[in-house]
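User: Sequence in, structure out. Go.
Assistant: Echoing your sequence, followed by the structure tokens.
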Amino acid sequence: MEEYREFLEEVLWQAKKQGAEYADCRLCPQEKSEDIKVENGAITALNSTQSAGFGVRVLAQGSWGFFATPIVQKDKIEEVVRRAVHSAKQNAKLQKQKVVLAPCPPQGWTGGTGGKVIVYKTKTEQDPFAISLDQKLMLLASVNEAMRQTSNKAFWRIAQMRLVQTRKLFASSDGVLADQTIIRSGAGIQVHAANTQGGDVQQRSYPDSHPSFTMQGGYEIIHNLDLVHNAAAIAKEAEELLAAPRAPSENRGIILLPAMLNLHIHETTHGFEADRVLGTEWTLSGGSFLTPLLGRIGEFRFGSDNINLTADSVRQHGVATYAVDDEGTPAGSVPLVQKGVWKGLLTSRETVPQLNKIIGKTYFTQPNGALRADGYGSWPVIRMVNIILEPGETDFDELKERVPNGTLMFGANKSWSIDDVRRHFSFGCEIAWEKANGKWELRKNAKYYGDNLNFWRNCSAVCDQKSFWLGAAGNCGKADPLQTIHTGHGSSPAYFTNIQVGSVG
């Protein structure tokens, strides 16, 4: 940090000199990544990238301005700050109301060379970038071979790996100075199987259907996925699905496994982002059915008593875990839903006063650290952190035993659709099982659909910590210009009653 402290202080000094009421700087001295992909035994992607740069965000005349550059040099500071301030002043000519920021919780830095620095670094057992390329390619080749040998109907086999390391320095005129290094490692595999007659095609994925699955950690994350063993398992399942009956079409009880439930949580939680609730963000199905209900936050019945949703940016290995967000707000763990009652939103310093004004009282006392950008050159927006459906007390094996015949159990997601306010949904799954005569039998092309409020209110049980799985959505898009970012999700299997199920196609 010391080699960049003077740089950051110069940015803040220049911003004050040029008339900014508030300023922050995100400086990335280095971001590096590796992407490797093997398809049917052939290397189809082998990319290694590095980047650096800094972005300056200012508040001047009550409006925001922003500018960024990939050139990390002190002689660029004055120009970057000048452009950021200029854009703020131009925006002020059009903006009807001035931006008001909630106070930033104190971090202990008062400026100068002796100030406290908030330091965060992902804990790793093995540096993923120190593992040889030959070793990584050998693993992906072995995964491909396991799928090929397991099924002669597996015509398209994919194995890929992604590694990312980002160092991000942050300083604000409100007294925050942070040095964060985040390392994400992950891999994903997928197999497509087809019948020679009839043209049916089925797919299976692992660990979920997002090919860019990563978690915070080192190469041990990839090792713990046990890819070769699971490659053979999903190849076998893909072939078995070809001969499986279609899922039935009627109201049933359903069990969602974490690979599917985490995606449903993700699509639901977009409606908990404060900018969407306020109507200031509308890209990619960007509204929220909670907007007209804002006055009832703290009492509105969102789900059953079994539903406890938490926004958690401090959870170990979470892909969205850090010390402070991209405006300097500390990470933490805050409730979104408690025992089925809607309690919170994902907020920023700007949205807290706006929300309280609509609610008519000080409901939100401070932001909860959910403002993030996908790089130094992007404007930070409210994004999901690690959204957790807290475990219940039900044993998974006992749940499978006690649910009635006719219950469907859904695995990894295959397709998704949700309306513009996150209310009505339809999700297709790669794999499902139906309980028939006390046994779980394979079903293909299964989907479930309905109303999100009825869905969460019909949750009868959430399984315990033993079956909890922490995952990630690797390519979540939001904002205009579009940003993609990793968001974390965690859940145990859960049981829902009276859900409409059917078959795709």
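User: And one key feature?
Assistant: The chain has three domains: 2-116, 128-164+184-239, 250-503.
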